[in-house]
Amino acid sequence: MSTEVMSQSEIDALLSALSTGEMNADQLKKENEVKRVKVYDFKRALRFSKDQIRNLTRIHENFARLLTTYFSAQLRTYIQINVASVDQLPYEEFIRSIPKMTILNVFEASPLEGRLVLEVNPNIAYAMLDRQLGGKGTSFNKVDSLTEIETKLMTNLFEGAIDNFGEAWESIADIQPFLADLEVNPQFLQMVSPNETVIVISMNITIGEITGMINVCIPFVVLEPVIPKLSAHYWMEDKRKVRQDHEVESLQKAIKATTLTIIAELGKSEITFSDLLDLSVGDVLPLDQKIEQPIIVNVDNKPSFMAQVGQVKKNMAIQIMKEIKEGYEDDE
């Protein structure tokens, strides 16, 4: 239930009206007891829950951080980007809210169906273009007369920005975003019907002394297949899975770093202790293993593999032939 906070002047006026008899306290009490009706606009359907909006905000805060790094590297200057708001509104209202001439990067995010748009304020777009061409990032607006070179430079720049969109969403869905078109007139951009609900993520961006907005518009029909994954329950399960994967990865690293002793056993021989004492260089010991027979390879004193003896570049070597399973018996 929402609570309205009255200002001090409204409180003073109310007390004055009660004291002079202009307002009856009993009547006021009855009015407050009347059930309030909340007006619902069916043209502006709220199709995303507050929980889903919060998770969309988290995703695009990550997207903003990725864009900050990307644009800073591409433009060789410090860029600051942060999420200002995340709203759901009719597509028609979004079109009315942006400039009549602006930079509209229309892209798709396969396997999701439908189109999305990354709208960049002209002042910001031209500041970026000026930096690409070696300038200081001065802004000027002539978006209605883009040259082929300017269009190509902007397309290349924003293609990389859209690649970061897929990385920001990887915790929710494995998508492959790609730039489909670059428009300048919103009136020619009809992605969905005017009353269709869209999510609009507005981000503030600062390039030197130039500030502006970048808007991401995502229609509800595009996000519909992944909406269940935007719930808090899914995020908690996902975090638990990430933690388990991290534990498994740490365990694997610890196991891989373990040192093992490997001994290739060429054969065995039994001699008396007196013969052992009389051994000298050049003496030959007969083994119980024929040279054509496979030998046993012990890993930490446990028979683990069968191998054959050979030579690689004048070095003695063994070639693993098969693994000795638990309970293996040599029939040869």
UniProtKB/TrEMBL annotation:
CDD domains: FliM (cd17908). Residues 254-324 form the Flagellar motor switch protein FliN-like C-terminal domain. Keywords: Bacterial flagellum, Cell membrane, Cell projection, Chemotaxis, Cilium, Flagellar rotation, Flagellum, Membrane. The keyword Membrane applies. Pfam families: FliM, FliMN_C. InterPro entries: CheC-like_sf, Flag_FliM, FliN-like_C, SpoA-like_sf. Gene3D superfamilies: CheC-like, SpoA-like. Its main location: other. It comes from the Bacteria. The keyword Repressor does not apply. Belongs to the FliM family. NCBIfam families: fliM_switch (TIGR01397). This is Flagellar motor switch protein FliM. It comes from Sutcliffiella tianshenii.
